[in-house]
């Protein structure tokens, strides 16, 4: 008889489920446990439950619609939220989305509202007497879902890499809900976002503007995988790390300080020694590498900011600290090479954004969001560091030109070039481009004085930049271009092309070390080593 009941329940869940993904098979259709199971690491990842939040489009819409009304009791609220949910995952999802849709900044509450009602709890959250995790647990209990409140530390607002958890400043609470056969993390407070694309917030009961509303939220904090959650949250009870191998508070402090966008883009650290605090070598240098998944290499753009750790200053001797960082991309790895100009502590903030080439060329300002931060500690500098040439911001090397303009380097694939007093740098165009321009930069030299030393010419689909260096030293070369019939520019990285006043888009840049001895060094490399020659 029990098997028959389970079979009928499974048929009902498949029929009533609002999942739009017909291949969804992860959630095993077993009876939901009557007693809360002990905490154990989940057997499958979040991506095994769902790959794209769009699978919840219908479920999310229910939560958004319900959120436009004020429910007087939890019974009424839960009935409206989960009435058409066919699985425990869907139940948890609609509760999560209902909470994240509610914009407490704009909600008005009656002072007489009862505290044991949904509106009463929301009012308490707004006034600081209640919390999101209590609300989520309460609604889950009405929905028949096992849910717990977990207390611990979090790398929340105001936290910086290197800070130790020695007091209660960063105490926090979050939830774990039992769905899809395992305990999974939910952080409604961090997942909540605000109302966008609407000039006015509709009053409760008003549906006239519902079509124009779009609610932003952070899907990362719904059913977050433990291996990602541990970067930001450390529970006081080790078993609620839900990891096969738990870590200590010290190890939690040492983990790199990453944000949810880091995981949304699929980023990861290829080096095991990447920590929240990075110590420079005797020359004041340290390297941080971030790897990208193959599907994001063509669209991700990175930027950074460097400032002193204990003060809001981003200059050293009136020179921007950004010029002491060299950012480059090779393959799927973006590298940040920091050279501290003096002893002390610095804060390196790394930003990213995913854009298409077309979006880059429109000229619209690009919004970069932080993906990770590091504390850079330089105990002593034994080598005097000079800043990089004052080129356009962003990465060095030709990879940007290939990703965004289809401009493929032929002669120089690396960001750093060693040359004599003359240099030819050649690219092949895979799409029509026009109005090329190269500008030289050198510490202590005016850009206008260097303008005549950089020229270019185009032959069929080849563009060649010819540089004659007026003196030895380190140069930066910015290359600009634009598409045919395009007047695009991006993020202020534009230049005037002689007197034609055409706005060009920054394409890429190189760091060039020019030396008269370069040809001698190259020729010596071609001469067989005496020992090698004698043994042949």
Automatic annotation (TrEMBL):
Chain ranges of the Transglutaminase-like domain: 122-190
SUPFAM superfamilies recorded: Cysteine proteinases (SSF54001)
Pfam families, alphabetized: Ig-like_KY
InterPro entries: Ig-like_KY, Papain-like_cys_pep_sf, Transglut-like_Superfamily_Mod, Transglutaminase-like
PANTHER family in the record: HILLARIN
Name of the protein in its database record: Transglutaminase-like domain-containing protein
Source species of the chain: Daphnia magna
């Amino acid at each position: 008889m029990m098997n028959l009941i389970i079979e009928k329940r499974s048929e009902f869940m498949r029929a009533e489920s609002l999942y739009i993904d017909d291949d969804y098979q992860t959630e095993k259709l077993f009876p939901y446990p009557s007693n809360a199971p002990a905490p154990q690491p989940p057997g499958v990842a979040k991506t095994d439950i769902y790959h794209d939040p769009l699978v919840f489009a219908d479920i999310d819409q229910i939560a958004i619609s319900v959120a436009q009304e004020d429910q007087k009791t939890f019974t009424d609220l839960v009935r409206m939220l989960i009435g058409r949910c066919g699985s425990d995952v869907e139940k948890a999802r609609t509760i999560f989305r209902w909470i994240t849709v509610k914009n407490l900044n704009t909600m008005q509450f009656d002072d007489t509202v009862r505290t044991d009602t949904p509106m009463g709890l929301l009012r308490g959250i707004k006034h600081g007497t209640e919390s999101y995790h209590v609300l989520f647990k309460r609604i889950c209990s009405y929905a028949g879902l096992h849910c717990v409140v977990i207390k611990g530390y979090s790398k929340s607002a105001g936290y910086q890499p290197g800070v130790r958890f020695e007091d209660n400043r960063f105490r926090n609470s979050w939830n774990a809900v039992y769905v899809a056969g395992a305990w999974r993390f939910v952080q409604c407070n961090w997942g909540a976002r605000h109302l966008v694309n609407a000039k006015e917030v509709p009053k409760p009961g008003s549906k006239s503007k519902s079509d124009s509303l779009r609610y932003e939220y952070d899907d990362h904090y719904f059913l977050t995988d433990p291996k990602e959650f541990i970067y930001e949250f450390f529970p006081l009870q080790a078993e609620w790390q839900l990891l096969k191998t738990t870590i200590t508070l010290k190890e939690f402090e040492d983990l790199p300080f990453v944000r949810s966008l880091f995981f949304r883009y699929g980023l990861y650290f290829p080096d095991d020694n990447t920590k929240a605090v990075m110590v420079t070598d005797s020359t004041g240098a340290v390297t941080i590498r971030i790897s990208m998944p193959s599907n994001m290499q063509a669209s991700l753009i990175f930027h950074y900011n460097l400032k002193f750790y204990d003060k809001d200053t981003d200059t050293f001797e009136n020179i921007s600290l950004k010029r002491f960082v060299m950012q480059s991309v090779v393959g799927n790895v973006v590298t940040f090479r920091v050279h501290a100009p003096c002893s002390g502590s610095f804060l390196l903030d790394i930003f990213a954004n995913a854009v298409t080439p077309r979006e880059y060329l429109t000229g619209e300002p690009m919004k970069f969001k932080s993906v990770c931060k590091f504390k850079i500690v330089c105990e002593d500098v034994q080598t005097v560091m000079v800043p990089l040439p004052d080129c356009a911001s962003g990465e060095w090397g030709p990879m940007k030109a290939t990703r965004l303009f289809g401009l493929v380097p032929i002669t120089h694939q690396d960001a750093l070039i060693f040359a004599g007093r003359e240099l030819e740098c050649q690219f092949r165009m895979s799409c029509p481009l026009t109005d090329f321009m190269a500008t030289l930069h050198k510490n202590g030299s005016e850009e206008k004085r260097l303008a005549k030393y950089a020229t270019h010419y185009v032959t069929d689909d080849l563009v060649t930049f010819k540089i004659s260096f007026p003196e030895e030293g380190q140069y930066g070369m910015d290359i600009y271009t634009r598409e045919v019939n395009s007047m695009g520019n991006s993020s202020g990285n534009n230049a005037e092309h002689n007197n034609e006043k055409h706005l060009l888009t920054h394409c890429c840049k190189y760091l060039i070390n020019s030396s008269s001895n370069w040809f001698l060094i190259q020729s010596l490399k071609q001469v067989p080593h005496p020992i090698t020659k004698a043994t042949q």
